[in-house]
């Protein structure tokens, strides 16, 4: 509940009983506002903005692009013409299809889900169990490094020379469903987690998750009614594998005596054995840059794809990165299409290999710096949103009036 001294008065600030000062409405709003980091926008010339816009519309677009992250609230529309291309991020087609014309050309930037296989028509087949469907004119483009990290990387090329051996940036998802958890649900989650560890299966396939939950029910003798079971199945499918992956990796390092460790993100302080190493959530911008640069070995573990924003941003600012290898890394659209393993990023295929490689690179600083520098150079040269947008513009200009889908998902190499 909001404190009395932070109530929302209609007028200017004043005094409350007891001498406390009442906030003005403007002060209250400033306290609640989250301001985007400065320096994330782009400077564009007038001839780069669509000619179909009227002068006042062009001014709004130019202003928004210069900020990089801007909210636009207008009493008029920017344009009524059909757009050449619609950009979305992490948004499944069923969510927005009712708003856009059927023939609209859509480009999606997505992380955590990998779209590397293509149909005969050249359309990435979106995973049905995540609510994605194949449709014409929909094009997947890989994630890239945000401009604020690109600028930091170009300003300072040195990184990875801090006083911490290991850092992991990413939350620890809850093992149990959020909220009050009944003892029987907690027991089922623990049995499910034990089955994950015994099988070393950490995927997010709903069918596999359903089989494991059935086995956990048999072992515990607990059966949940329909809706309650469906809710738990969804949690076991998506959250428990991520918890298991990350807890297993960090637990292994601690078991090996690696106490020079920082864990950034929500949830790490929930587990007593991880709490001493939890450093809380990082704010975008300087905090994340400092974390990557102040660590000798940055770890990345993501169960769905390594073509991930954290990978590109860590490398962009000069961090040395070791990532858990995935089966899709070597396939079209996988990580190895964008980065060269062993030269720009280091991959590990097991926890024992992670330990052996980390011992090697901690002992060989020059080699570690050389790989970090090569990864940084590659990302700044090819994997920024400027590069991604150039690809979008080239495709739209080259296929205007058609419904194109480029078969290549490769990175820009200009």
Radius of gyration using CA atoms only? 24 Å
The amount of helix comes to: 25-40%
Which class of secondary structure composition applies to the elements? alpha/beta
* Count of individual helical segments: 13
Largest sheet: 5 strands, parallel
Q: What spatial form do the alpha-carbon principal axes imply?
A: globular
Oligomeric status of the shown chains? Answer: single chain
Q: Find the count of extended strands (DSSP E, 2+ residues).
A: 10
Compressed to H and E, one letter per element, the order equals EEHHEHEEHEHHHHEHEHEEHHH
Keywords:
38% helix; 13 helices; alpha/beta; disordered N terminus; five-stranded parallel beta sheet; 414 residues; three-stranded parallel beta sheet
Structural commentary:
Mean pLDDT is 78; it is low at 1-13, 114-134 and 401-414. Helices cover 38% and strands 9% of the residues. The protein has 13 helices and 10 strands. Strands 7-6-8-9-10 form a 5-stranded parallel beta sheet, sandwiched between helices. Strands 3-4-5 form a 3-stranded parallel beta sheet, with no helix packed on it. A two-stranded antiparallel ribbon has the order 1-2. Strand 1 (14-15) and strand 2 (21-22) form a beta hairpin. With 414 residues, the chain is of the alpha/beta class. It has helices at residues 25-32, 55-67, 93-96, 147-155, 183-199, 206-220, 226-238, 240-255, 286-293, 309-316, 351-363, 365-382, 385-398, and strands at residues 14-15, 21-22, 86-89, 106-109, 138-141, 164-169, 261-264, 295-300, 321-324, 346-348.
